[in-house]
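Our consortium's second objective concerns turning raw sequence data into structural hypotheses that experimental partners can test. To show how far this objective has progressed, the report includes one record in full. It was chosen at random from the queue rather than selected for favorable results. The single chain below, 86 residues long, was entered without modification.
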Amino acid sequence: MPDYPVSHDQVAQFFDEYEAFEGHYQIAQASTEGRAGVAMADFELEATPSRGSTPNVRRDVQLRLVMAWDGKQWRIVDLAPRSWFR
């Protein structure tokens, strides 16, 4: 995944910032690009911040997921926009 260390840090920060979350998604479109599978998904996230004094957060975003077959299963190799973790 391009810029994996940055993405890893964003996900780690997300888990530190929220004590609970629930995600829902719906695949809007699926296709192939060469040997990769690509899916566009409408994603909704509801999260409860770790600090009880701040309100719950709700985010809606359309994610582009690029997946590759590793011989056993599909793995996400790229995700956009990555800013939705912030």
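The partners drew two points from this record. Residues 4-17 form the longest helix (14 residues). Residues 4-85 form a domain with the Nuclear Transport Factor 2; Chain: A, fold (CATH 3.10.450.50). Both points have been shared with the crystallography group to help prioritize constructs.
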